[in-house]
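Please decode residue identities from the backbone states below.
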């Protein structure tokens, strides 16, 4: 078991990487004798609910699976249930599931009575390695991904890679894309390590999985501490590949391409665009694509049937753009991502016209 402490503005919280049962005392301390609501979906509750219920009294609130949970109806349902349970502001809510459940529950708990504590117990590789830490919450609205959200830092995060044993392969690979992202942003050595051990991570080696999750969480905590609310450009690096990815998810129809799959294609495009602009060696962009393809992740828009021409208008409207300029995370090479403020939309259009 390992405990990583995170400071975010005025809050601090622990992230426990290890078996859920090792976090028994932390959970019970936060619960303070109350029955805690657990937001989850039917599948996760059926597979893993018992383990949690054996540790403390909980009441499940079931929401739809995956991205479908992240909408106004889901948010309204949670607020209604919290009200019916008569939760007070100090009463924690547990999010047990993937990133979608974490995002929805984080937002509902952030809004309820101006904020009650949320405990994240992520059960997908993506949520453990990435989304459960950092306090970003959101639902989708008006056809746009994560349009409505807020920052709400968790009270505790418990990442137990044992949950991943029941995760299907497609979800696992999608999560792996976010692990590759951390390597591409700032850790060339981790990318080398992933080239050697990616197969073990994907095929179920718990030790390697825990190591990968730990590395990503530690990297994310460093970035989030330096830029808790995504204001000074540092945290924007975590969006490597994501401006492309969010546009891909919107064009494909929210929920049809998994977030991590879109991120995989997005990172290939961001690397290739960087190479085309002469910023990154073409050989490194090719290495990125090769590794993701070896992990059986999609690396082209054609694989997810997305028309490249449809991406630009969505990318130009992305939240990361400021004062009308196109902001994009680009790369000088593996492990060397940087935020570019003045990307020329015409160059991006030409690049998109040239990709598969
Ligand atoms: N807040 C952030 O910082 C942040 C970062 C990255 C991604 N996200 C968001 O996370 C979402 C994607 O999350 P995700 O990839 O975790 O998927 P998800 O939450 O959308 O779906 C997970 C699916 O896997 C199933 N599942 C979950 N755990 C399981 C387990 N242990 N065994 C078997 N099945 C299991 C669920 O029932 C569900 O069908 C996107 O909405 C994305 O925008 C948020
Ligand atoms: Zn992501």
């Amino acid at each position: 078991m390992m405990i990583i402490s995170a400071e975010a503005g005025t809050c601090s919280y622990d992230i426990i990487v290890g078996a859920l049962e090792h976090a028994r005392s932390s959970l019970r301390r936060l619960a303070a004798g109350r029955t805690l609501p657990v937001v989850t979906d039917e599948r996760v509750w059926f597979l893993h609910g018992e383990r949690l219920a054996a540790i403390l009294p909980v009441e499940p609130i079931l929401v739809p699976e995956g991205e479908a949970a992240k909408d106004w109806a889901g948010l309204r349902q949670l607020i209604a249930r919290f009200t019916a349970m008569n939760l007070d502001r100090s009463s924690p809510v547990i999010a047990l599931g993937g990133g979608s459940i974490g995002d929805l529950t984080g937002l509902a708990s952030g809004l309820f009575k101006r904020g009650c504590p949320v405990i994240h117990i992520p059960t997908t590789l993506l949520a453990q390695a990435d989304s459960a830490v950092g306090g970003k919450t959101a639902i989708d609205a008006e056809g746009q991904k994560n349009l409505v959200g807020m920052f709400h830092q968790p009270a505790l995060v418990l990442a137990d890679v044992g949950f991943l044993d029941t995760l299907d392969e497609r979800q696992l690979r999608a999560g792996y894309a976010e692990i590759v992202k951390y390597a591409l942003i700032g850790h060339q050595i981790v990318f080398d390590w992933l080239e050697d051990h990616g197969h073990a991570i994907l095929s179920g080696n718990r030790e390697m999985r825990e190591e990968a999750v730990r590395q990503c969480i530690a990297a994310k905590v460093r970035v989030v501490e330096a830029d808790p609310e995504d204001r000074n450009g540092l945290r924007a690096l975590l969006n490597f590949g994501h401006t492309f990815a969010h546009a891909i998810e919107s064009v494909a129809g929210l929920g049809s391409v998994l977030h991590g799959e879109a991120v995989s294609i997005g990172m290939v495009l961001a690397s290739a665009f960087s190479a085309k602009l002469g910023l990154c060696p073409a050989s490194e962009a090719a290495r990125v694509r090769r590794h993701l393809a070896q992990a059986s992740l999609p690396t082209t828009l054609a694989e997810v049937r997305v028309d490249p021409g449809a991406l630009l208008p969505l990318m130009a409207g992305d939240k990361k753009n400021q004062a009308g300029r196109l902001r994009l995370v680009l790369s000088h090479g593996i492990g060397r991502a940087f935020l570019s403020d003045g990307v020329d939309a015409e160059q991006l259009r030409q690049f998109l016209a040239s990709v598969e």
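Observation: Residues 130, 178, 242, 259, 263 surround zinc ion (ligand 2) (CB under 6 Å).
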